[in-house]
Design goal:
101 residues; single chain
C-alpha cells in the first residue's frame, strides 16, 4: 500500500514544486526570471517563496549595490535533501503502480 502521507506537503503544492524544480536544476534564479518562467503574479510567487523559505528550503539574497535592487533565490542544502526525498517517494509510487499493472 502506498503511503501518500510521506509526500512533503510543503513541496507537493504545484507552484512550490515548480519553484523547487527550477531551483534544483539551475541553482540560482532572479525573482523576475522565476516570475516570467512560471507565469505567476508577484504576490503569488512571493507567498510561495516565503513558505519555502520558512521551511528552510530556499534562501533569498538581495543585492542593492546597483541602480535597482536584485533579489535572487537558491535552494538550500536542506531544500535539496527534502526535494530529493520527495522525488524518491514519487519514484517509489510509480514503481509500485508499474508492478501492479
Amino acid at each position: 500500500m502506498i503511503d501518500f502521507d510521506q509526500l512533503d506537503k510543503t513541496i507537493h503544492e504545484k507552484a512550490r514544486l515548480s519553484i523547487m524544480t527550477l531551483l534544483a536544476g539551475r541553482g540560482e534564479w532572479a525573482f523576475q526570471d522565476l516570475k516570467a518562467e512560471l507565469g505567476m503574479s508577484d504576490g503569488n510567487l512571493i507567498s510561495h517563496l516565503r513558505i519555502l523559505s520558512t521551511a528552510g528550503f530556499v534562501k533569498e539574497d538581495r543585492d542593492e549595490s546597483g541602480t535597482r535592487p536584485r533579489t535572487t533565490y537558491k535552494i538550500t542544502p536542506a531544500g535539496r535533501k527534502a526535494f530529493k526525498s520527495y522525488l524518491d517517494i514519487l519514484e517509489s509510487i510509480v514503481k509500485a503502480m508499474k508492478s501492479e499493472g
